[in-house]
Each structure stands twice: as structure tokens, then as C-alpha cells.
Amino acid sequence: MTRFLTIPLLCAGLLVAGCGGDDDDSSDSDSGTSATAAAEATTTDTAEATPAPKGTTIKVSDSQFGQIIFDADDQAIYLFDKDSGSTSECYGECAAEWPPVLTKGDPQAGAGAKPGLLGTTERTDGTTQVTYGGHPLYYYAHEEPGQVLCHNVEGFGGLWLVVEPSGEAVS
Question: Which of 40, 65, 95, 137 could disulfide-link 101, Cβ–Cβ 3.0 to 4.6 Å?
């Protein structure tokens, strides 16, 4: 007798499980298309609702060299006079000492920075480096926020110079 009850209960359980995920009240006979359309709509809504990442902020602050550019955390920013246009020449050991100013979104102009001078360049490793006035930008790896220790310092075949709000190197 137990065997006769088990089979109908098992079949009823499978029937209920097969219908359990359908909350659609419509009479659409092609539920695969409806589910796909709903998934695409959700994906589109999510993509539109996700804002683009905010890029690195460049601002102007005072230093012993006058007003120069810094990042939002008050790290001094330099250019490398060996760079040609917006192409970086600083990789490997150079980039370890002089890390590039990278960004994940469009760079942002903070106080005193000129938005029209901000740009980006792609590095050989696929990362995006911030440019200002057409120059790729760098930090000095051994400075604390607010320090400017390496203006007009020679290294890696060129000079490292802090940058004026105009985008030119401080002379």
C-alpha cells in the first residue's frame, strides 16, 4: 500500500516543482521569450543605473615652488621631460620610483585645475594614465602628502619637474 501512495505523491511533487518559478500572470505561450526579455530589461536597467567610475582628481595647491598640481590626497605631481607628447617613457624600475598617476574614469578637475588640460593616455600594460597639458603625470614614490622633494631632479634619463596650473613645468 505504501508503494501505491509513494508514486502519486512523487509525481505530484515533480509537477509542482516544474511550475514553481512562473510568476507571470500573462497568457504568453512563449515563456522563454518573456524570461529573456525580462532578463535583458533588468540588465539594461542595471547598466544604466551603474554610474561610470569617478576618475582621479587633479587640483592646484601652494608649494615652495608656487602653485602646482596635486591629486585629491595632496600628493605632488610631476612630469618627466623625457616623455614625448602624451607617450610615457617611464616603465619598470622608473615606474617603481615614479609611479604613474592612473585613473579608472575620466580625470576630474579639482580646485584651480583647468578641465581642458586634463586627458589620458594608455600605458603598455593597458592601464590609463592621467595627462595634464599633454604631459603624462607621475608621483614620486618616497614623498608624503604635501611634500615636494624632487623638483628639477635628474633620473632615468630625464628631469622630473612639478607642473604649473597652466600645464607647463615649473622653471
Answer: 137
Angstrom distance (rounded) from CA 14 to CA 8:
10
- DSSP H helical ranges for 87-160: 93-97
- pLDDT tens digit at each of 171 positions of the chain: 444 444 444 444 433 333 333 344 444 444 444 444 444 444 444 446 677 788 999 999 999 999 999 999 999 999 999 999 999 999 999 999 999 999 999 999 999 999 999 999 999 999 999 999 999 999 999 999 999 999 999 999 999 999 999 999 998
Measured distance CA(70)–CA(162) in Å, rounded: 9
Query: What does the alpha-carbon distance between residue 159 and residue 81 come to, in Å, rounded to a whole number?
Result: 5
* pTM greater than 0.85: no
What is the number of other CB atoms lying within 10 angstroms of the CB of residue 99?
A: 15
Cβ neighbours around 23 below 10 Å, total:
5
Residue 148 in contact with residue 154, Cβ under 8 Å? no
Cell of 31: 515563456
Contact 41, 126 (CB under 8 A): no
Cα torsion through 98, 56, 102, 134, rounded to 10: -80
